Amino acid sequence: MFIIITIITTLLISELSTIKSLELRANCGFPGKPYRSKIIPEEKSVYDEGETVSFQCSDYWSPPQMRKCVNGVWVGPPARCGNFVNNVELNDAKLLDMSFGLPIEKFHYRNINLTSMEKYLPNSFLSHRYPKHRLRVTNDHEFMWKLNFTRPAVKLFVRVNFNFINFTLLDQAIKNNFSFYIDVEISPYRTCNLDYQNSNAWNDNGNRIDSYFTCEAHSYEDLQRDLENPNNYMIMRTKSSHNLPHELVAIFFGNVYGNDSEPICGEPETDFGQTYRVRQEHRDYIIDCLDSQWKDATPNTYKHFINHQKCIGDMIWNGTKPKCIPIRNCPIQKILNNNRRNFNENDTMDKNPLIVDSILRYYNFIENQTIYAIDGTEIVYACASVDYILVGKDTRTCKRDMTWSGIEPVCKSE
Ligand SMILES: *[C@@H]1O[C@H](CO)[C@@H](O)[C@H](O)[C@H]1NC(C)=O
Ligand SMILES: *[C@@H]1O[C@H](CO)[C@@H](O)[C@H](O)[C@H]1NC(C)=O
Ligand SMILES: *[C@@H]1O[C@H](CO)[C@@H](O)[C@H](O)[C@H]1NC(C)=O
Ligand SMILES: *[C@@H]1O[C@H](CO)[C@@H](O)[C@H](O)[C@H]1NC(C)=O
Ligand SMILES: *[C@@H]1O[C@H](CO)[C@@H](O)[C@H](O)[C@H]1NC(C)=O
Ligand SMILES: *[C@@H]1O[C@H](CO)[C@@H](O)[C@H](O)[C@H]1NC(C)=O
Ligand SMILES: *[C@@H]1O[C@H](CO)[C@@H](O)[C@H](O)[C@H]1NC(C)=O
Ligand SMILES: *[C@@H]1O[C@H](CO)[C@@H](O)[C@H](O)[C@H]1NC(C)=O
After folding, report:
1. Which of 15, 340, 345 to mutate to test the pocket of ligand 7 (most atoms within 8 A of CB)?
2. Using CA positions, which residue lies closest to atom 6 of ligand 1?
3. Which positions make up the signal peptide (predicted)?
4. Which residue's alpha carbon is nearest to atom 4 within ligand 5?
5. How far is the CA of 260 from the centre of ligand 5 (A)?
6. Does any ligand 4 atom lie closer than 6 A to the CB of residue 177?
7. Ligand nearest to the CA of 311
8. Can you name the residues that pair with 215 across neighbouring β-strands?
9. Which residue pairs, CB below 8 angstroms and at least 24 apart, start in 176-179?
10. pTM for this structure?
11. Could you tell which of 261, 264, 282, 315 is best to mutate to test the pocket of ligand 5, judged by most ligand atoms within 8 Å of the CB?
């Protein structure tokens, strides 16, 4: 058994070393854009394979959100931005040390009356606004924080900042190995996932660790339950990897734009080959095939079916999309079929050594992974081995009239 595996591996490796794999670089469409956000580095309707975009939210400080164009589709969850939740203020804070089996109460501050918020971003707690006490932990035990707030509210995003005092005085080796575990709970109908943690130098020789959570509803039904009956608590579990005093310095909550029954998403994601029309700005869009050059290949759709995407729940796009394919395209199937066909097989050198090295800016029909060569698609040729040289232009472009530019190059043995 072992021997067989070895032989197969050797065969594969030798094949790979003689033939470079075909490079496929499909185009992606619009990655979607949250309400009140900016796409970085730039907003376009068509992106190249491998391009990444990030989204900068204007209001709620969101963690970095990135998407990457891979094989014609955007990889990474759709970006979301949110609004700050206002007028939800810390009212009661209890800290329990959980390291001894039975919880041990370290502090309990009731009727916390935060000072006025002017000059700060809308927050639910800021240590500056509560000079009376510090919400501080002094060791690496496991703690449970039981917090409640002045009013119940639906929350989708949570950001919690801790400051680790005298962090900068630590040895570099300890700093490198430093970690802070934190989880939060704000509703029985949601689970909060840590999206991102970052740290910034701060005062007291400190290091501020900011933890960003998104609290997804378990289902659409649970979302409705949360909307009907929101909560005013937050339970937080923390553990520092090292014995270092640290304190809670800020809590921010974020929620959807618009309101709970009519959230505002922004602009929907569209595949390359699709376009959208506004039905209700930032909320409801009709998705069509790009123009008269594209058609919907969805089977059995009646003529007047309208595909639309609607913003629902926690700013999620829901609905249907057409399956667009280009009506006219440059013939490519034959080229692909011939590509390096059996060139290596049985090592006979009388086969055509001309191969397609890469296909650029084509349309990948995701449904069945079909490659369509459209206006602007390029095929780049190469010779399958160094024993040949390519004669002619190595690149052919699919032209407007759906023919390939130039002529096929040839590989001549040296
Ligand atoms: C909270 O503090 C403000 C002044 O900052 C005061 O006017 C208000 O009465 C206080 N509320 C309670 C419940 O103590
Ligand atoms: C806040 O939490 C305390 C326990 O720490 C609880 O006794 C109190 O009822 C809570 N307040 C509200 C308004 O839920
Ligand atoms: C931070 O370090 C300074 C200087 O070593 C020390 O005086 C101070 O007590 C430390 N603070 C805490 C909270 O440990
Ligand atoms: C880093 O931390 C891990 C556990 O958190 C520990 O096992 C390891 O020894 C630490 N390494 C150093 C160099 O301190
Ligand atoms: C939600 O917003 C929409 C549009 O702004 C408005 O028509 C509707 O009355 C609002 N609903 C609630 C419950 O506030
Ligand atoms: C989502 O869209 C589908 C298809 O259009 C629809 O059947 C469903 O009711 C929508 N879900 C919600 C929660 O609106
Ligand atoms: C070699 O050629 C024979 C006959 O054409 C074919 O059946 C066989 O599969 C080929 N071997 C390999 C490794 O491709
Ligand atoms: C993929 O689907 C399209 C549209 O249904 C169809 O025209 C095409 O032949 C399919 N391609 C393959 C390889 O099945």
Report:
1. 345
2. 113
3. 1-21
4. 262
5. 8
6. yes
7. 6
8. 192
9. 177/241, 178/241, 178/242, 179/240, 179/241
10. 0.84
11. 261
pLDDT at position 413? 84
Terminal C-alpha separation, the chain:
42
What residues flank ligand 8, with Cβ below 6 Å?
297, 325, 365, 367-368, 370
Q: What pLDDT shows up at residue 275?
A: 94
Residue 365 CA to ligand 8 center (angstroms) comes to: 8
Q: Do the Cβ atoms of 193 and 80 come closer than 8 Å?
A: no
**Distance from residue 384's CA to the centre of ligand 8 (Å):** 29
Q: Which residues of the chain have pLDDT under 50?
A: 1-19, 342
